[in-house]
Design goal:
Metallophosphoesterase; seven-stranded mixed sheet; hydrolase activity; single chain; alpha/beta; 13 strands; 302 residues; 23% strand; Purple Acid Phosphatase, chain A, domain 2; Metallophosphoesterase_PAP; Calcineurin-like_PHP
Length: 302
């Protein structure tokens, strides 16, 4: 991915201007509050009669150490008590404002202490704030984030996850070669990619044209069913776009306004995380707020 610095700053969303309205995106005005979005009825989905093969949750832009982060962390703990899971996808900006590892107790170990004591494993990727200190190296070395590299893959039975470094200074040439190779060799039923930066978004940063050009063809070719990210501080679930659903769960500690686009299934400016129940033929998605209530449900089918 041959990015010029200026191109990335604009298209990757670091300015937050311009490309929110490109292409075929048809956004409505930003939501004034979560109430506007939440007035829609939560979709009714058939309740499975068997437990999922695997369950995990995702959250991003968490590392503030504020009451908002702790409220989302508490909701994640309460959800675990009724719906046990053993994996959290932590999609970047793990430590604000500059990735200072000395804050790790306040922004990670303390808010998630219940989950950590229960053996829940966090798998992180690096956000733009994380690389401000030593290019993220302290976080790569931190055992609690379980990052064997700047980009990596791991598997749980029929699910294979692919973590990306989506920052402007990433080794894009070798990372894309690696991603193509790993996706093509994978025989997993479910392929899930996560990174920090958005691809499709109705929020502040909008659509990410370079990523649409370089990443989405790989997703379509190799049947990646789900991409999870943060960066934009809201919740958003897209319809399937060429076989891939795009999930923004960047409201793990704060929120910003969000609108809707022609490909948006649901969006909300609300502190929250997302939970995923994986079955052999579908993934059921639930968005959960700090009131411990589900405010959106969706399904991804093979």
């Amino acid at each position: 991915m041959n990015f010029k610095r200026r191109q990335f700053l604009v298209l990757g969303g670091l300015t937050g201007l311009g490309f929110s309205f490109l292409g075929k995106v048809l956004q409505s005005p930003p939501a004034e509050s979560a109430d506007t979005q939440l007035s829609n009825a939560v979709p009714e989905l058939a309740t499975p009669t068997t437990p999922p093969l695997f369950r995990f949750v995702s959250v991003a832009d968490t590392g503030t150490g504020t009451k908002s982060q702790y409220a989302v962390a508490e909701a994640m703990s309460r959800y675990h008590q009724k719906n046990p899971y053993n994996l959290v996808i932590l999609a970047g900006d793990n430590i604000y404002n500059n990735g200072e590892i000395e804050k790790i107790e306040t922004v990670f170990e303390r808010p998630y202490q219940y989950l950590l004591k229960k053996g829940v494993k966090f798998r992180a990727c690096l956000g733009n704030h994380d690389i401000r200190t030593e290019n993220g190296e302290p976080q790569l070395k931190y055992a609690g984030f379980n990052m064997p590299g700047r980009y990596y893959t791991f598997r749980h039975d029929s699910i294979q996850f692919f973590a990306l470094d989506t920052n402007e200074n990433a080794d894009w040439k070798n990372q894309l070669i690696w991603l193509e190779k790993e996706l093509s060799r994978s025989n997993a039923r479910w392929k899930i990619v996560f990174g920090h930066h958005q691809i499709y978004s109705s929020g502040v940063y909008g659509v990410n044209e370079p990523f649409i050009k370089e990443l989405t063809p790989l997703f379509q070719k190799h049947k990646v069913r789900l991409y999870i990210n943060g960066h934009d501080h809201h919740y958003e679930r897209t319809r399937s776009i060429n076989g891939t659903t795009y999930m923004i769960t960047g409201s793990g500690a704060g929120t910003r306004p969000v609108g809707r686009s022609e490909w948006t299934e649901y969006s909300a400016s609300r502190l929250s995380f997302a939970a995923y129940d994986v079955y052999s033929d579908r993934i059921l998605i639930s968005a959960i707020g700090t009131d411990n209530l589900v405010f959106d449900r969706g399904v991804i089918s093979l």
